[in-house]
Amino acid sequence: MSAALHQLCELVGILPDYYDIWGQRHETSDATRRALLGAMGIACASEAECLTAIQAWQEASWRRRLPPVLVAPSQAPIALTLHLPEREAGQVCSWRLTQEDGHQAHGQFTPSALEPGETRAIEGEPWRQYRLYLPPVPDTGYHRLEIDLAGKTQGLPLIVHPPQCYQPACLAEGRRAWGLSVQLYGVRSRRNWGMGDFGDLATLLDWAAQNGAACIGLNPLHALYPHNPLHISPYSPSSRQFVNTLYLDVEAVPEFADCAEARAAVAEPAFQAKLQALRVADLVDYAGVAQAKGRILPLLHHHFRKTQLAQGTARAQAFRAFQHQGGADLRRFALYQALQAHLHAHDGDLWGWPVWPAAWRDPNSAEAQAFAAEHSERIEYFEYLQWLAEDQLAQLRAKAERLGLGIGLYQDLAVGVDKGGAETWAHHDLFALEARTGCPPDDFNPRGQDWGLPPWIPHRLREAGYAPFIAALRANMRHAGALRLDHVMGLMRLYWVPPGMQGDEGAYIRYPFGDLLGILALESQRNHCLIVGEDLGTVPDEVRHTLHDYRVLSYKLFYFEREPDGHFRAPGNFPAQSLVAASTHDLATLKGFWQGEDIKLREQLRLYPSEQLRQAQIAGREADRWRLLQALERDGLLPEGVTANPAEVPELTPALIQAIHRRLARSPAQLLIVQAEDMLGETEQANLPGTVDEHPNWRRKLSVALEHWPGDARTSGMAQAVRAERPGNAT
After folding, report:
1. CA–CA dist 548, 371 (Å, integer)
2. Using one digit for the tens of pLDDT, what is the confidence trace for 179-204?
3. What sections of 13-84 are H helices per DSSP?
4. Dist CA 457 CA 492 (whole Å)
5. In DSSP terms, which residues pair with 215 in a beta bridge?
């Protein structure tokens, strides 16, 4: 065992071990350590290389006189560690703080009079750490701190954050609310073009207001791949900073009403027949939807250029302002979209930028910039689509506020991005591109899970001032009243699967938890956005306690919440600071759970690692049905004619589904989420983890069209059941 290897891993944050769901300790192997260091671009094949890497790391840290960024709580002194040659310690230095609003503060200090720290010789010269304390900065925000050291001015971003995340008034002082969650693509309506869109979302907000719900929850809306509409997982996006424009309500775009060519194309009998076929299909035909919208949206862009941009109208000025505000990030995203579509059209094997011709893999290359200049109108088209999405989402947030919804849109932020997409292309130096995030082995995945998503390299993210993290939060909070962070434990540590290895050979990597959580609180308060942390599975106590202190809602699912004797948790035993739901997109619906459809499907697809586990699940499910009926009987919620007799398994009727949700609604949990699939009694779940093509993941539509919801006894019955325990959405 190499002491230098282990020291190097400690420096970069590779943890020495972890405990699995059974409480067993797993030590990180040296092979895994070396593979993960290599994925970070750190040479470590020998003891000498490890020692060289340690020296380079430490010297680089010392030669950086100031840290790359400082994240600090408001109302507390600003503590800053300086690295200086001892010969400079007697010189008088000055500091200047410039706040976001332009307000400035300044002062002087002499390093030799400060609290001293460690010493180190660099090229034979003694250097020392000095601890500088500045007055508290009460105003939260993104400030700039500059320090004049030995006649040279150096600066760093100073991010001052509030102590807690935002909570809406509808959850204040013990109030409780409820909402409905949908997979937006799967919403069925008479007017959409084959998949749910932002027009349907407006209708859902009306439904929420009429039925006392505070929010509509959504799958991630992140940008995917226009050139490949079959890349459909919302949790494997091209970019989390931009939107999947297949969700656009095309006929609501202002240009549509004014563009005779587009309206004529849509009115064609063949086009209308295609739309009708897309609507009635039970599974979303993404390629067909993309083809239909891809025929009309370019016509609208062309019309916009001719009637708005050419005339310099107010609408044209609004678009130019959007481009300016989006800056380099928007421009680079649109350039990626245009380049990927162009290259893929010539070679279908070019699935993403890692396999592009080398000249275009760098967004700053002369070739990429030449392409941008030559295809400026095409790039503008992708910017235009993002502008339309921004406008429609802004209208939805405004509508939710007008309707008096306590929360509004409840969005979802994926834990990572696809390797070949726009986000990694724009910031490829920040990602360990050959590593993948995942999770350790468990009952269902004895070899662990590999999600195929390249992780951020923690120290490089910090060197970037956390800019990509901030951008992702802002993009997903801007129009949301609540945001769910998928795998929130990733703020503290992420499980990396090394290049060329299996999921059970990975290790956890440490992330700057305090910094990331502080930024999360700042953006939450700025955007008036409630934060929900998806904390399922084995989560360290430190994470749970700290998230609680920051007022992040814990994520509690009915299936997993049990008393010590195995019975379902009593309503009164749920924590108040939590979101409670029966199920989620990766689990069986209530009806599927009741009927054991998930067990049958896993058996059919041979996903069980052992027959023993399958039999245990069958027996456990039988016991769970009885336990659930017993719990409902104890709480006086069993529907008429239903008993808790274990010898009789009743049908899971809408009344029984509503009783389960009424029981959950009685909990002190601040927010209850009802899944649309459960409200409507659907059997199939949205996604079956561990499958790709074996199951129609991310394609299933709801069985009932939105237009029929008002007259459907299941929707009205669910709303009445929940409102009996949680009366309204008062703000």
Report:
1. 49
2. 999 999 999 999 999 999 999 999 99
3. 30-39, 47-63
4. 13
5. 179, 408
